[in-house]
Amino acid sequence: MTAPRQEPDPPVDDLAPRFCAGDEAALREAYDRYGRAVLHLATSMLANRSDAEDVTQATFVAAWLGRGTFDPAKGSLIGWLLGIGRRKVIDRMRASARETRVVETVRQLAEPAPTGPDPDRVVDRLVIADELARLPDDQRRMLELAFYDDLTHQQIATVTGVPLGTVKSHIRRGMASLKRRWEVDGAAPGPRPAGLSGAR
């Protein structure tokens, strides 16, 4: 009597551990395997194909630089990459919206109305937009959610999934950086510029 034939065990997928360990071949393999999924996510949320491709590349760069934060025990590599991709898409959408606001503000300045906005106030807003763009991504994102979207710290933590204490730290450091740059750039002392009234 012959023993039943045993099927060989499926090969172990070691991509995630190799990626975490810094194996550059694993980075290429992850891009080949999951790049299309990340691009699909980006193109489904962004109108511009070029922006979607940029976001896809930025996602893998961010994932590679932050690979030490990925825990295979808590989720799959593709799920983690799509989470980063989603945040990069939101950042790109916010950056585009900010650029649109700046362009619109400049366009309004080209034909000032007799009772138009205070020029100093407009310049302040342009300077703030420029300074925000120089901040690290996490700090800029938290400040934009707080001041442009008028969200509380708790709401930001809920929306982003970032711990409340980390949200507060990012906003505090971002505000400190803006204040230092505002002073270094020679802005006149006085009330804080419009839109930076403080965090809640």
Alpha plus pi helix count? 8
Task: Name the overall outline.
Answer: globular
Considering the protein shown, what is the CATH homologous superfamily of the largest domain? RNA polymerase sigma factor, region 2, helix turn helix motif
Can you name the CATH architecture of the largest domain? Orthogonal Bundle
Termini Cα gap: 77 Å
The largest sheet is: none
Strand content: under 5%
Listing every helix as H and every strand as E from the N terminus to the C terminus, the arrangement reads HHHHHHHH
Low-confidence stretches: 187-199
Q: What is the name of the CATH class of the largest domain?
A: Mainly Alpha
Based on CA atoms alone, the radius of gyration comes out at 23 Å
Search tags:
2 domains, mainly alpha, Rna Polymerase Sigma Factor, Chain: A, Arc Repressor Mutant, subunit A, 200 residues, 0% strand
SSE layout and pairing:
Layout: H1 15-20, H2 24-45, H3 49-65, H4 77-110, H5 119-134, H6 137-147, H7 153-160, H8 164-184
Concise structural overview:
The chain is mainly α.
Structure, explained:
- By secondary structure, the chain is mostly helical.
- The chain has 2 domains: 14-116, RNA polymerase sigma factor, region 2, helix turn helix motif (Rna Polymerase Sigma Factor, Chain: A); 135-191, Arc Repressor Mutant, subunit A (Orthogonal Bundle), CATH 1.10.10.
- Helices cover 68% and strands 0% of the residues.
- It is built from 8 helices and no strands.
- Helix 6 crosses helix 8.
- It is globular and about 60 Å long.
- It starts with 14 loop residues before the first helix and ends in a 16-residue tail after the last helix.
